[in-house]
Amino acid sequence: MRRRLLITYLSLTAVLLLALEVPLALSLAMNEFHHLAIAQVNDTEKLAAAASRTATPASDASWAARATSYGTHTHRTVLLLDAQGEIALSTRPGTAIERAEWRRTVRRALDGNPNLPLEYPFNLSAEPLLVAAPVFEHGWVIGAVVTISPTTSLRARALGQNALLLGVAAAGLLAAAAAAVPLSRWSLGPVRQLHRAVGAIAQGRYDTRASAESGPAEIRELAAAVNTMTDRLVALLEAQRSFVADASHQLRNPLSALRLRMDVLESAVTEAGRPHLEQAVEQAVEEAERLGRILDELLALAHASEADSGATPVEMRSVAEARARAWSPQAAATDVTIVVKGEQVVACCQPGILDQVLDVLLDNALGFSPAGGRITVRTWVDDTRARVTVTDEGPGMTAQDAERATDRFWRGEQIGNRSGSGLGLAIATTLLEVGGGRLSLSSAEPHGLVAEVDLARDIPGVAALTRSDAGGRS
């Protein structure tokens, strides 16, 4: 947008300068030519008048000296023609009147007509200027005085003036560019404010609103529309969260009552019927516990989308080691080893997010790792991103399943009878997206699954900016 404004400002300035300077350049050039032509006409008429006062100007030494002095001083050629147009005297021997337009000019002078070359077709080709004036004796034309002036100096002055005008135009463009930068910044101020507000909303700060009280009318209308859209979005999200939370809480009461009744039923059954009923009661209790876990995960998912947006530096290697220690007892029970590798990496995310995500990924990895298998947690960085991967040695999944694995309630074919609600990866994905991170799944070689967590890197000097911009297989 700023580039377009700068191009527009400079284009308008360039057009304005061209509209002013092209006519000015032509006017200055024609003015130089008119000065030259008028001065040469006056000088030629003076020489013709002096020749008229001499009975035989061609043989008059004083007139010849005057003509020679004039030619030397002005770098012009002076010719004295007789009544037939033949050259009787020349200050530059060898000069001939060969051009057709020159001969017409001389013929008009020999006919007694004045010569005013103000309609001379000026150009920059340095074509000499010829002026002719009749010489009279007792009212009769007895010859003509011709002066030929080179226009090389005239062309040089015109080119110099044009160069000066070009320099002025360039300086004007530079001044316009210098003024256009702050002007465009000022013009785009309301747009930047709107962009910051929209960015904050996109990062989950739903209490942010765009300023609709200042700036151009179009920007105010757009800001008002953004605020209206945000209000409706917040209302929809709040309704969704309220529904999930209320449903979870409301379902918990009958679920607790169901478990209590099962306990009462189990205690009331006689010894004869107990063997047949114990299995059914145990299965019912397991389903009730599974429903309870689903309700807990639904609540976690509802709260994940409204996570705190304040990003802080988090040392990923330390978090990975802490979560590996926490899951080590369960891993040892299934004969699985958890190994943490990689360098010290500082990421920028909300507190506790990485802990929860690693818990989900380690839980999944343990559920699919074979006995004697190994789970590798590795941290690493590139220029701007911090990453941690969790790699297991399980069956893995296809590319199509990897794309769907983060959907809510999705359970792949490899799940089998493994307990789970299909919400773990969805919760992890939502937690990461709130802080501007992402979760990706891919196959490991020769088998297994690689879950990669990608977060913004906490870089000194830009960390504050990153934190201000953030919050954004079960």
Automatic annotation (TrEMBL):
Catalytic activity annotation: ATP + protein L-histidine = ADP + protein N-phospho-L-histidine
Record has Transferase as a keyword: yes
Pfam families attached to this UniProt entry: HAMP (PF00672), HATPase_c (PF02518), HisKA (PF00512)
CDD domains: HAMP, HATPase, HisKA
Domain HAMP: 185-238
Enzyme class: transferase
Name this polypeptide is given: histidine kinase
Organism: Streptomyces alanosinicus
